[in-house]
User: Fold this.
Amino acid sequence: MRVLVTQEIDPIGLQILADAGLEVDVRAGPRPIDRAVLLDRVGGCVGLVPMPTDRIDAAVLDAGPLRVVAQHAVGFDNLDLAAARARGVICTNTPGVLTDATADLAMALLLAASRRVVEGDRLVRRGEFEGWRPTMLRGLDLRGGVLGIVGMGRIGRATAERAQAFGMTLVHHRGDPQELPSLPVGLDELLGMADVVSLHFPLRPETRGLIGAAAFSAMNSTAVLVNTSRGPVVDDSALAEALRPGQIAAAGLDVYAHGPQVEPALLALDNVILAPHLGSATRGTRRKMAELAARNMVAALGGDVPPNRIA
Ligand code: DGY
Assistant:
């Protein structure tokens, strides 16, 4: 039984698949797998381990005798679950293991954008640092500031917990804060009161472009936006329009509206930090993701209930 893995993953995942007697085809390369290569190589495979960058739709599901799709990510907006269900293909994801790493990155972007760290780095490299100055690169005070979490799920809560340690007050829209002292508010209210808005909700048809021009006009001119969820939930060209005249102060982005193609207007701005989808990129987390994806695959192919079934 053959399994296609569409990118190199931590060796532990490959070992688990091989130990289960599966033949593993790992496609390596710096870019996401080409659609034509995916359609070709999935032929003859009973299992597929895709990345969030691979569109797994009816055409892919029909290209091989697929029984299981074990996504190597928690987000699964790239999977057509209805098509998988219709074909009896089991789908799984990797929740939980990347919560801390992603919340750490949200916090890193929050801190760096709020305190203008990257702008400062560029200034120093340009040779423009002429000494300490009371008015240079003043940023946001976190203690006493309001963090608005849009999507209080696992990662939203973990980010909120971290921000609480910095003295921030919490409000949220959607989700459950559990033990956290966070006030539930409407989205417009949150946008109007938050010093930092951090996005943690999945990409769905109704959330595509949710944070656009209207949202930016509702935000404060000193506010910071952080996006570590999915790129298309933000309208990046409206974001550039809002950042340019200082309608909002800054942004820290890990994901982009059009995949790795970053809105050119954003590239030209100093008050936005652009990260290459690093949310779960720690050695330990990527190891756990590979392990979980492989365990899901082995369980499902063996006829057991996989730990993280989503379809
Ligand atoms: C996910 O898991 O959904 C991330 O975006 C990749 O780590």
In short: The two ends are 21 Å apart (CA to CA). Residues 52, 73-75, 98, 279-280 surround (2R)-2,3-dihydroxypropanoic acid (CB under 6 Å). The chain is about 35% helix and 15% strand.
